[in-house]
Amino acid sequence: MTPTITAFERSPDRGRGLARDMRVRWALEEVRQPYEVRLVSFAAMKEPAHRALHPFGQIPTYEEGDLVLFESGAIVFHIAQCHAGLLPDDASARARAITWMFAAVNTIEPPILDLQTTVLLERDQSWYRERLPVVENRIHDRLGQLSDRLGDADWLDGGFSAGDLMMVAVLLRLKPSGMLDRYPSLSAYVARGEARPAYQRAFAAQLAVFTGQSPAGG
Amino acid sequence: MTPTITAFERSPDRGRGLARDMRVRWALEEVRQPYEVRLVSFAAMKEPAHRALHPFGQIPTYEEGDLVLFESGAIVFHIAQCHAGLLPDDASARARAITWMFAAVNTIEPPILDLQTTVLLERDQSWYRERLPVVENRIHDRLGQLSDRLGDADWLDGGFSAGDLMMVAVLLRLKPSGMLDRYPSLSAYVARGEARPAYQRAFAAQLAVFTGQSPAGG
Does any CB of chain B come closer than 8 Å to the CB of residue A5? Predict the structure, then answer.
């Protein structure tokens, strides 16, 4: 059964692949699973019909028959559970890959979200200039630790997994800030993720929503 | 094999059950799995030996033979995968319960963390008083939506699951603020979690670290 996901009708990132539907598209492309996309306006996201799918009025959602999921991490995990290619078969390696999924959304993403909220919503506040470096320093603490752990490896724990997919997607949110430039190994890690054919296909598909043009190759 | 988890030697919450080892203890108690605890000082958490277990220098960690995990969400998930009682058997219900685990750590916890960081680290900053209500309002948005979804139900999706365990644990971080009081159904939901015998045993065990007394009944 072809799943249907939701994405922004007009993504605030103008198709740069930073919205959370990108993670789900990427996971579906990694496992070669076709999917439908339903675009949702900001107004519709707050309406009861969408809130029935997503209690917090956001994207993405995932519908597959009677199953309705939200939260990009949970959707990526579901895709990884149902199809080979995103989680190792070995139980311990699998548990460690899932650990990186949680680390991405619960340790690395929150300070990055704080930065984005600060830049988007607090730019005109009196405290903006003074607080910004405080927020940035919290991110640098985490990036330094993540860079230490990654070391010279290609991926966080063995082969590419849903943990790397989530981590790269979260780190990509920092790209506009230039903050990753201080960490050559993390920059290379993110570039490695972006270079994956599945990422490229997912990126083209979400960009096509913004440009109104079909991605090359359909 | 009895797993070993790490917890704060001196928890900053003085044993109120708000540190993240509580989630893991609670999960282990729900599935009646004995565990060992190794207490870690703040200084030791930043040392290479602990950083080898937890790249971000935090607690909890989980060691079970050769397997080392960190991130409370990932550890709770691992426990739920290995033992019956925390995730439904039905695949769709299981995916929905896992969705609530991710919602707890990626949608509800980040604004709550922002509040705690603000109160702990920015209290002496010039912007503190002005910014605090902004942070609180973001939490209220989420609590209102969560309360709408919960409605009159006991738990978020059918029976108690690891999704509820994580959500209750995250909401408990708000208890000192009194912010939950505006949401009677959420307050009752959290109280329902706290009333579970497994929660009670876990709470007593973590409090005993602080008081230096063994929990009643060992």
Answer: no
Q: CATH 3.40.30.10 occupies which residues in chain B?
A: 4-85+198-211
- Cβ of B95 within 8 Å of Cβ of A67? The answer is yes
Q: Which residue of B has its CA nearest to A113?
A: B110
Which segments of chain B does DSSP mark as H helices, in order?
Answer: 21-30, 42-45, 48-53, 72-82, 91-103, 109-121, 128-150, 162-172, 184-194, 197-211
Q: How far apart are CA A103 and CA A109, in angstroms?
A: 8
Numbered ranges of CATH 1.20.1050.10 in chain B: 91-196
Q: Which CATH class name applies to A4-85+198-211?
A: alpha beta
Indicate the SS3 state at residue A160: coil
Residue A215 is classified by DSSP as P
- Tell me which CATH code domain B91-196 carries: 1.20.1050.10
Q: What is the mean pLDDT of each run of 10 residues along chain B (218 residues)?
A: 95 89 98 98 96 97 98 98 97 98 97 91 86 94 98 97 98 94 97 98 95 67
Closest Cβ–Cβ partner in B51, B126, B146 for A130? B126
What pTM was estimated for this model as a whole? Answer: 0.96
ipTM score here? 0.95
